Amino acid sequence: MKKLFIFLLCLGWFGVLEAQNIWTDLLNPYGLIGVAANDDRFYSGAYYDETLYRSRDFGETLEPIYDQSNVESSEFLINKQGRIFVFNDHTNKIWYSDDNGDTWNVQPNGIARNYVDRMYSVSNDSLFICSNNILAWTLDGGGTWNETTLPFLDDDQTCIGLLADRAGNVYVGNTTGIYSATTYDMTQWELKAESEYMRQMELDNEGNIIVAETNFHNFIYHNGVYFTGRYTIAVSDDDVVFTIQRLGQAHNILLYSTDHGEHFIPVGEYIYSWASGPQREELYMCNDQRLYTMGWYYFQSYEWIPLYYRSTLRADEIVNQSRQFAPQGAEWYFHVLSDGPITEPPFYYVRYSVTGVEEVHGHTCSVVNDDQYVYQENNVVYWYNQTKDAFTVLYDFNAEAGDSWYCDVAECTYLVTVDSVGYIVGDSYFDISYRRQHVTAYESDGGTDPIFEGWIIDGIGYDKGLFPDELTCYGGGNDSGEFCYIRCYYEEGNTTMLYHYGEYSCTFIPDAVSENTESPIKVYPTPAKDRVVIEGIDPAKVQVYNGLGQVVKTVRDANEISVAGLAEGVYLLRITDTEGKKHVARVAVKK
Fold first, then answer.
1. Residue 13 phi, psi dihedral angles, 5° rounding
2. In sequence order, what DSSP letters do the residues of 422-466 get, joined into one string?
3. CA-to-CA distance for 554 and 531, rounded, in angstroms?
4. Exposed end of the chain (fewer CB within 10 Å): N or C?
5. Closest CA to 415 of 424, 427, 402
């Protein structure tokens, strides 16, 4: 097969799942190589007929604009000015077009090479070419070509990365490091930064180099070079770094970073990757600032067929998107720890899940655990306060340090203030980060004692319980120790959790639980059929947990609990008495 360098290679078949829809397919199996300023798309027929195509309807129809039928090796490039370069090894010359492929010209002189690995262009007159360990360049539109042997590459090696800037600096990268020289003296190369296994490198607007380095997960800065542990990167005109992260065998997700690749934040819906396909992901940022990626689909004829996809949003629009809070299929698992009659390790967890969609007061809401209603608008999450029959601000993911909002809980009103903003790594293996706000809530009438405090994680929620009625006057406060931290967060269709914190699995329950033998509580009958009675204390609140750690019933100010509607099994009763003391008892239900 004829060798064709395509900027865009993302291996895996992608299909869109329900969430923020930022991907669409390109309607044809040809290889996208770039996008002109007028939105014309250019495709390569490398796997079919060696022809360069143009499309003016987003890939629905193609027209041939350059015939490669007699070419053994070719290279395509579209620079920032919109000029298309094509290397033709039949003539060893560069063909170019400034009118989106309508007409073609050829540079006056060629290069003594019939194979090209990399091309890079800073302006219409400048072009740099890597061919094995030879670097060729022209600064006058092909009138004069120069060559130099790269001293840090053997004869059978080639450059992995090639960059240049308008100041005359040239950068070449390989698996051992990044080397720099200037167009004034291309014989003096200096090691700018060492590398272990570089996959790709890009320049930002400040002249820094951002490197996709796959041999480590850490973020390192050295001498103007940012190393980020990713397989591929694409950098926007606003210096936002994007990457594709594989999550398990079946799903990928788009991540972006606004700090040179130190923290990557997930955005958009999951993109399905054909599990048996090649295990690589790559991105390409075209001149229109849309992201493009390529997948492989495995047909029964035992061939890998490339399919191409683009983002429906431009880079700045993607960054302005917030992850949807409580999408359909979302699940949260909270670590629960008792401070009284139960000893370590923790004996249960609490699970939340989105159970449906419902219209409330004109808003389309996600329903959580059948009785909580939330909707999101402009990155602000609103929660339905059933006592006041009105929505109140639950989370403001836009808020910065010093910002605040009012949150109504039952009849109470609290002022929630953002103390600081930072990042947390939600999954250390995949190195996915989330922006988070540390907040403190006070009574709105000027109270000085915090009602609750903790972290709000973008797109996930408060780390000690999703809803404020569990943390404030209405729910008894977080001092009960019920919600310790969020263990895990999943979304539907994803085989790997997006967030995992702590040493316990999402559904961990220890084999044995130690009870407080000094507690005066007595619960009978057990097994019970219709009801159980609590003696020895005055219960203020009783929560009934099933074997999965889920709250299946809550009763207030009563010493009798109906169990008629519960399935057979063993249940835990977590009881708070009128003095605020905590008690735990077991009861069996048998019909």
1. -85, 130
2. EEEEEETTTTEEEEEEEEEEEETTT--S-SEEEEEETTTEETT-S
3. 14
4. N
5. 402
Specify the DSSP class assigned to residue 120: E
What own/partner pairs with CB < 8 Å and gap ≥ 24 does 554-562 have? Answer: 559/533, 559/534, 559/535, 560/531, 560/532, 560/533, 560/534, 561/531, 561/532, 561/534, 562/530, 562/531
Q: How many residues are recorded in the chain?
A: 591
Measure the CA–CA gap between 425 and 409, rounded to whole angstroms: 30
pLDDT band at 26 (very low <50, low <70, confident <90, very high): low
Average pLDDT over residues 433-453: 85
One-letter amino acid identity for 29?
P
What SS3 state is found at 315?
A: helix
**Any bridge partners for residue 442, and if so which?**
415
What CATH architecture is 522-589? Answer: Sandwich (2.60)
CA–CA separation, 516 and 585 (whole Å): 9
pTM: 0.71
User: What CATH number labels 3-319?
Assistant: 2.130.10.10
Distance CA 587, CA 569 (A): 9
Span 327-359, pLDDT tens digits:
888 888 887 665 444 334 445 677 888 989 999
Per-domain residue ranges of the chain: 3-319, 331-500, 522-589
